[in-house]
Specification:
The complex is a heterodimer. By secondary structure, chain A is an all-beta fold. In chain A, 0% of the residues lie in helices and 52% in strands. Chain B is an all-beta fold. Helix content of chain B is 0%, strand content 56%. In chain B, strands 2, 4, 5, 9, 10 and 11 form a 6-stranded mixed beta sheet that branches. The chains are: A mainly beta, B mainly beta. Chains A and B meet through strand 4, strand 5 and strand 10 of A and strand 4, strand 5, strand 9 and strand 10 of B.
């Protein structure tokens, strides 16, 4: 059974703290993604990765960085958390390559981060 | 950034009634249209991925159609049940990469 896990369901941090959000998938997927979800805005892509040690900026990368040292793990880092980063963060993974079936993304349960 | 729009933002349906809602997306550089269902306290789950104009897919009481020339997709729920209550997200996948651009979702509440 396909599975994407995230390190925390709820997290409360203070302004200025460094925050790590971890995502692990057990499907041997090449692609991994980090999104944030805010009311009325849908999912917005922060960063994604097609391979180990590879990263690409999404639509809203400012204030975030990522790390992918192993194929199964993709970490989102908030270098200095700010109140406008309070949000729901979702990780997802998918297979690389088209013509290999539906390119659906598999999502983790999300981390609701509150920055005080 | 692809501009994907969903309407309505929310709707309430009586149990047993059927309903449908819309996703519109830019038709240029299009590769695929995804539909996901996101139930409260759960992860979003894929319902359909459609690529061909005129495509129609079905899963149980839920079906979807795709018009790539005019840039829209409909999701239909037949005989709504309380377990259909969820936010339904559509996302457009461009031809240049694997990124998805999501709409804001349609939240469906089925009243018993």
């Amino acid at each position: 059974d396909v599975k994407v896990t995230q390190s925390s369901r709820y997290l409360v941090k203070r302004t200025g703290e460094k925050v790590f959000l971890e995502c692990v998938q057990d499907m041997d997927h090449e692609n991994m993604f980090w999104y944030r979800q805010d009311p009325g805005l849908g999912l917005r892509l922060i960063y994604f990765s097609y391979d180990v040690k590879m990263k690409e900026k999404g639509d809203i990368p400012e204030g975030y960085s990522v790390s992918r040292e192993k194929k199964e793990r993709f970490s989102l880092i908030l270098e200095s958390a700010s109140t406008n980063q309070t949000s729901m963060y979702l990780c997802a993974s998918s297979l690389l390559g088209r013509g290999m079936g539906d390119n659906e993304q598999f999502f983790g349960p999300g981390t609701r981060l509150t920055v005080l | 950034i692809l501009n994907v729009e969903q309407s309505p933002q929310s709707l309430h349906v009586q149990e047993g009634d059927s309903t449908n809602f819309t996703c519109s997306f830019p038709s240029s550089n299009f590769y695929a249209l995804h539909w996901y269902r996101w139930e409260t306290a759960k992860s979003p789950e894929a319902l359909f991925v459609m690529t061909l104009n005129g495509d129609e897919k079905k899963k149980g009481r839920i079906s979807a159609t795709l018009n790539t020339k005019e840039g829209y997709s409909y999701l239909y729920i037949k005989g709504s049940q309380p377990e259909d209550s969820a936010t339904y997200l559509c996302a457009s996948e461009g031809s240049n990469d694997y990124k998805l651009s999501f709409g804001a979702g349609t939240t469906v509440t089925v009243r018993a």
